[in-house]
## 1
Amino acid sequence: GTLGVAVIGTGRMGADHVRRINEVISGARVAAVVDVDAERAKAVAQGVDGCTAHTDPAAALASDDVDAVLIASPGPAHEATLLAAFAHDLPVLCEKPLTPDAASALRVLEAEQRLGRRRVQVGFMRRYDAEYLRLKALLDSRELGRPLMLHNRHRNASSPPWFTSAMLINDSVVHEMDVTRWLLGQEITAVTVLRPVPSGNAPEGLEDPQLVLFETDGGVIVDTEINVNCGFGYQVQAEVVCERGTARIGDGHTMVTNAAGRWGGTIAQDFVERFADAYDREVQAWVDATRRGEVTGPSVWDGYAAAAVCEAGVRAQREGTRITVDLIARPALYH
Ligand code: NAD
Ligand code: ISE
């Protein structure tokens, strides 16, 4: 039957996921929404037939109408809702980050292992982006030989007022941590962070941009420019350098115009626009797998590994040195 979804957190992402499930996704409906801000929850529920509004996730998860949970509250609130969903035996799509640090991610990892089967897909949506999928297929084919280096650019038009220098690593570069691990099929073993003179475009005190270097257990070197006040738009680009060639995605050249002595195109302004198709595919894949009784996509292990790299990255930034990443052995459930 149709999957009844509870959406926890109805802010920017949550409200967009409610719209998506309502208008784009087949096989699911929004049965309940939850937000600590009662007015916000009510306003979002109003637009959806038969959707109830709550301020406490526990009430929504206990409802007979709810078969699955989409978590889009802020990262620090994820752990409590994940554990509550496990207690109700409900499948979960959890927005990145799984949790804000490695210790809390490990608690979720242990709780899921106690269930004895996977319950969670983590919202690393780039794995569902058409361009990233092409790049992954090319790398897996080994047509260009082995990958040696990966260059990433991650640019946001502007950062929200509460953004900190650490968040460039654990809120933004966390996506490059995941795509690096996924594209290469390797773990990240060390992180170094270099900081140029801050941009005058960035708020006072924010160390923006930064250059983040990863080393992997397969010997690949990965660099990421994170630049969250570039002013001109939202850009995510990746170029892999392999033994017999290179491949690059994210140029956004879907249409090039020529006019008045210039050529060019447009640049997306935010992630909601740039990754619209990826979010659609991510949520549809979750709904389809859930209805088959399966769990696919980025796992709690992937969420934990990213959290561990984030911690190393924030230390590398603060201490100005190379920091190694220590992961526990990968449990059997995630092989
Ligand atoms: P937001 O601040 O716009 O929305 C968060 C909402 O959650 C707010 O309405 C807030 O009132 C509510 N909330 C806070 N604590 C809650 C709790 N305990 N229970 C229920 N609701 C609670 O934030 P956002 O930008 O929508 O981010 C939400 C999540 O999505 C975060 O985990 C963030 O990292 C992630 N995110 C992912 C992407 C992506 O590209 N995949 C992009 C942006 C944000
Ligand atoms: C945000 O939370 C995201 O997840 C976006 O994808 C990223 O581009 C942005 O920098 C983050 O703040």
Note: The two ends are 31 Å apart (CA to CA).
## 2
Amino acid sequence: MKMVMRWFGAQDDHVPLRHIRQIPGVSGVVTGLVRKLPGEVWSVEEIGEMRRAIEAEGLESEVIESVNIHEDIKLGADTRDGYIDAYIQTMRNLKTIGVKVICYNFMPVLDWARSRLYYELPDGTNTMFFSEDFIRHTTPRALAERYAEEAGGIALPGWEPERLAGLEETLRRYDGMTPERYWQNAKYFLDRVIPYAEELDIKMAIHPDDPPTPIFGLPRMINSAKSIRAFLELHPSTHNGLTLCTGSLGADPGNDLPAIIGEFGSHIFFAHLRNIQFLENGDSYESAHLTGSGSLDMRAIVKALKDAGFDGYIRPDHGRMIWGEKGRPGYGLYDRALGVTYLLGLWEGVG
Ligand code: DNO
């Protein structure tokens, strides 16, 4: 197992690599060219430059998050083959720096969604908040505007201005999209990409839908044991697998995370570990990582990973903003660093 931290690149992250390096037990960063649009090839030069900056701080860059999938692929448009070719070229280029895992998602139009980015907790920290009721009564455009106002100019992964520019038009393209067709489009993508993943020995780790419940009438895909099973069956391979995101899957209390880990163990290549606290009305916020801080049993989750012989990558997922830190919601240094230390302690202690 390797412990890694997400890092958005020197231009886009307020956390310097040097500070990440100072967290005990962290071997590398999970990174990517966050300014690249879906469908654009990541060049060998740009990738090499990214690696040099990371290696200069003694860190590794074996996991990429995310190489985003062009909407035409998800929609199954006639133009999809060109975008898949570009995806494969990016995979080839990433191989030149020894990338081992690519985390990606197959969520339509939007990546993650929350109702608040900086919800204040009684102890003066703040964190991301999710209210299904709020999301049900808003529109993606109104949500994007709320984020822009709350984040005050901080770019949010998955809510990039380019993605939002044609939001209504992109949403319209999903009118009439059935789950069956959506799944067929995923299969088409996997059938083309996974053979290259095998050849290049790059593990493809799909991220679950966040939140796991349908939003804005868009199809959902990866949100339960059943859907993970069906997804892996679309193209069975040692290189077709999962990013286990406890906060995404765990937002549905019906998902038994240790059981999911037990079932799909060898296909979990990467784990995003975070805790969430449910409120009585079903709303939730992202708590500190500790079992005692939220509703998920983090010890049982880490134990299940260890029992499954997990030898992939773990990153502490979203933390709160603490000690007055300002930055991208979920991606402050301090709370995630506490998360690393806690998770490594669990890892050491559980078995
Ligand atoms: C949010 C992240 C997601 C994740 C993508 C993977 O903070 O967990 O944006 O990186 O869904 O493609």
Note: The first helix runs from residue 17 to 21.
